[in-house]
Amino acid sequence: MQTTTIQATPFAVSMDQVGKDYGKVAALDGVSWGFRRGSFTAIMGQSGSGKSTFLHCASGLDRPTRGTVRLGDIDLAGLKEAELTRLRRERIGFVFQGYNLVPSMDVRRNITLPLFLGGRKADEGWLEEVVHRVGMADRLHHRPSELSGGQQQRVAVARALVTRPEIIFADEPTAALDPRSAGHVLRLLREAVDQTGQTIVLVTHDPAAAAWADSVVFLGAGRIVDELVAPTAEAVLHRWDTL
Length: 243
Ligand SMILES: Nc1ncnc2c1ncn2[C@@H]1O[C@H](COP(=O)(O)OP(=O)(O)OP(=O)(O)O)[C@@H](O)[C@H]1O
Fold this sequence. Notes:
It comes from Kitasatospora gansuensis. This is Putative ABC transport system ATP-binding protein. It is a single chain. The chain has 243 residues and is of the alpha/beta class. It has a domain at 11-100 and 167-241: 3-Layer(aba) Sandwich (Rossmann fold). The protein has 8 helices and 10 strands. The strands form 2 sheets. The chain has a 6-stranded mixed sheet, sandwiched between helices. Strands 2-1-4-5 form a 4-stranded antiparallel sheet. Helix 3 runs parallel beside helix 5. The protein is globular. Bound molecules: adenosine-5'-triphosphate. Adenosine-5'-triphosphate (ATP) binds at residues 22, 25, 27, 45, 47-53.
């Protein structure tokens, strides 16, 4: 007897020949890559190499000029704007350098905001786990202005985790933090991969931050020019120098 098994793609997000033009500038120039489920990838490259454009196209924040971006099996180009917004809110998490918390809302409301916007109720067990992981259990009723930068970024990580997204994109999340707070935030991202199989894509300039990832993808002039597996900060620096 023959049985048919439908295999889910091993990639949380895959890109095929993705290009993005700004006028005559090809900010991305034929990028093909897949982010394996349960992997932690750092994206590095010189200023202007296309990292932000890459992140925006891969995460559906922006539409490429050419090529295909898929979240699992879904081709993002086939989605209307409202569908793309909903998909981003429900299935993709974001952590930005500037935290992007709502100043008038307390920690709990900030963390659960994506659920509220999607008309979903919090899974209290998961919420408790996420709050515990980021170490904010005793701060749930504080406003962002009452927290340090590192604490605010941990709230932003919790907000990204609360919907159990298929992938989290983090854009320079530790750039404004001191090394200790940065380490705390990076450890949270690492644990999300190791403990709950999360997929993380981290854009960073910092070799020490990139060393938390499973691999580093190097961009140059809008193309993928190299990959470093099992990176150390020293190896990242060395590869950077030889780019
Ligand atoms: N909105 C835009 N309009 C015109 N050109 C743009 C726009 N966004 C990016 N570019 C150009 O595309 C190229 C890639 O920019 P991008 O911001 O993706 O690089 P980056 O690697 O993130 O740089 P940085 O590390 O400085 O943030 C650059 O030449 C940039 O000038």
